[in-house]
């Protein structure tokens, strides 16, 4: 099993430089014929100097910067869209409410 991105080594280095922990997991698809693949996660833990305590959703939605690897808003909206497309029966109230707040804010600005 291999990771399918030419950009991962560069992203991994950047992520680790800012204090994130990198973990590679095996992701098993819902349907066995689709198989499995490696999934790389970047986790900001409490010992990370950039870690922020959990904040109210209204604060979180108003503090989405642009990072070197893209607009942070995409890291929120893309999983919400994917969850609806791939698993329409699954409800994630936190993700969907944050998506609603961010989309509303984006449309206002």
UniProtKB/TrEMBL annotation:
EC number: 4.3.2.7
Keywords: Lyase
Signal peptide interval: none
GO terms classed as biological process: glutathione catabolic process
UniProt GO MF annotations: glutathione specific gamma-glutamylcyclotransferase activity
InterPro entries with a match to the protein in the record: ChaC (IPR006840)
Source domain of life: Eukaryota
Annotated GO CC locations: cytoplasm
Keyword Lyase: yes
Keyword Lyase assigned: yes
Function of the protein: Catalyzes the cleavage of glutathione into 5-oxo-L-proline and a Cys-Gly dipeptide. Acts specifically on glutathione, but not on other gamma-glutamyl peptides.
Protein name: glutathione-specific gamma-glutamylcyclotransferase
Organism of provenance: Dreissena polymorpha (Zebra mussel)
